[in-house]
Amino acid sequence: MALVRDRRQLNLRLPLTELSNRRPRFPLPLPLPPSSSAAAATSSSTAGSGAAGTSLSDLESLGVLGHGNGGTVYKALHRRTSAVYALKVVQADCDATVRRQLLREMEILRRTDSPHVVRCHGIFEKPNGDIAILMEHMDAGSLQTLLEASGTFSEKHLAAVARHVLNGLNYLHSHKIIHRDIKPSNLLVNSAMEVKIADFGVSKIMCRTLDACNSYVGTCAYMSPERFDPDSYGGNYDGYAGDIWSLGLTLLELYLGHFPLLGPGQRPDWATLMCAICFGEPPRSPDSASEEFRNFVECCLQKESSKRWTPAQLLNHPFVAGKDPGACS
C-alpha cells in the first residue's frame, strides 16, 4: 500500500472540540512589520474595492487573528478608508515547505475572483523576502469556531453552508483548481453568514493531468480513501472528487458535533484514521436526519471516487436546491 511508504508525511491535525477543552491562545497584539512605500516594492492588486494603491504603511494592526503554517494573520485597519482586512505575514526565514505553500497560495489567489472564495486585495513582496497577503476579513471566524462556540448546525443552516461551499468548489474546479484541504477551519464566515473557502497552501492547479496531485498533503483526517490507497479505489487519485469527500465529512461533523469517523471524545491517531477511511464503511447520517440530508451525505461519501457527485450535480440535489437560498441565519 502506497500509504505505508509515506506515513511520515501525513498531517494528523484534527481540531476536534471533544479532544481538548483548551481554546487557542494567541500572544498579545504585535506590531505589523516595519514598512514604507519603498519597502512594499511589489504589490499586485486583485479585484476588490478600497485596496487599490494600498501599501503596508497604510495599515494599522488591530491585533492578531491567528498563527499557523509559518505566518501570522493580523486584523488590520486601513488608516485612510477605515476598511478592515486580514493581513497574512510570512517571514523570509520560514522553512522551505512553508515557502513553497505560500508561493502556491499566492499563485492561486491571483487567479481567483469569486464571491464564494476569500478575496485577495493585494500581495506585497518586500526586498528582505517577507511576504504579506492582504485579504478580505471574515469577521465571524470559521465553521470550526462557530461549532465550538454555538454547537451543532441545523439542517437549514447546513443546506446554506453546502450551497456556499459548492458554489466555491464549482468555481475552483471549473478553473482546474483543487483545494485538497476542505474542512471546518478552512471555511470562513462573515457577519452576513456567507461561507467562503480559504487557505490554498496545499491546493493544486491542474494543467494536463491529475497524476501530479497524487501526494499526501492536507489534513489526513479529511482525506478520501483513494488519497491513501489509489490502487484500491479506482487506480488514480481524482482530486476534484477528493474535495467532495472532504465536504461530506465536514457537513456531517457540523451536524453531529464531532468528527464522524471517530466516536465522541476518541483521540485520533494515524492507524485508526487509516483503517476507518480505507477499510471501514463510509459514515452515515443518523436516523434523526432528514432523508434529503442523509442522501446528500451519501452522494459525497462514496468510497469509489467515480461515484461521487460533482459540485454542479450536488447544487441541484433536493437538500440544497429545495431549501430557501437565503443566508445561514
From TrEMBL:
Domain Protein kinase, chain residue ranges per copy = 59-320
**EC number(s) on record?**
2.7.12.2
The cross-references to Pfam families, in alphabetical order and at most eight, read: Pkinase
Protein name stated in the entry: mitogen-activated protein kinase kinase
Q: Which SUPFAM superfamilies match?
A: Protein kinase-like (PK-like)
Q: Which terms are listed as keywords in the entry?
A: ATP-binding, Kinase, Nucleotide-binding, Serine/threonine-protein kinase, Transferase
Query: Where on the tree of life does the source sit, at the highest rank?
Result: Eukaryota
Give the start-end ranges of region Disordered. 23-52
Which EC class heads this enzyme's classification? transferase
